[in-house]
Amino acid sequence: MTEHGPDLTASTAGTHVIEHAGRLLALCEANYPFELDQDLETVGAYDFDGKLRTAMTAHPKEDPLTGELHFFGSSPFPPYLVYYVADAKGEIVHSAEVRGATASLKHDFAITRGHVVFVEGNVTFDPADHSGIPYAWSDRQPSRIGVMPRGEGRRPAHPLVLRRTGQHAARLQRLRGRPGAHRPGGPHRGPRGLPPLLELVDRRARARQ
């Protein structure tokens, strides 16, 4: 810890490793990424030339069409969720605090052609937990899916559309039952080639625009 909060440069960086824009980055979702050289020696904490203001998820998504890297930083303290986009050259060109997020644990997310999909589960920050990982299950924390338009280039921030996951359970079951919705040996897919959950949230979000 520092006087300004968690030390984002102190990390085991042992969750995931990616390569983007010529940089090899080791990731741990509670801290900055750590850059490695081609011999896998540590170069140091990497903050995208000062534009990364939070920790970085260990599960960023690279768009195969644009080369953009989409990722987020989450925290048990405000701002709870910040969404970032780095272009194919590795420069952060979009960042925005995601309004409506909570202190729940955010492990992963997804992107579609037009939207970003965040998931908030029932595990949330619990300062009374002294196990070393201050998160615990809470019945008062609803499981939710949040959808917002992708931030590309220098577009402004967009609002997050939140829905409780239980509201779509029956609809998802019908999607799974459609002919051709399941490919042998692969995941369920919908008409746009996405898993049915992402098909549904992407379609709902596009309908609101």
Automatic annotation (TrEMBL):
Main EC class the enzyme belongs to: oxidoreductase
Keywords: Dioxygenase, Iron, Metal-binding, Oxidoreductase
EC number, as in UniProt: 1.13.11.-
Pfam family, one: RPE65
Cofactor note: Binds 1 Fe(2+) ion per subunit.
Transmembrane segments: none
Biased composition (Basic residues): 174-191
Family, per entry: Belongs to the carotenoid oxygenase family.
Protein name as it appears in the record: Dioxygenase
Species for this entry: Streptomyces alanosinicus
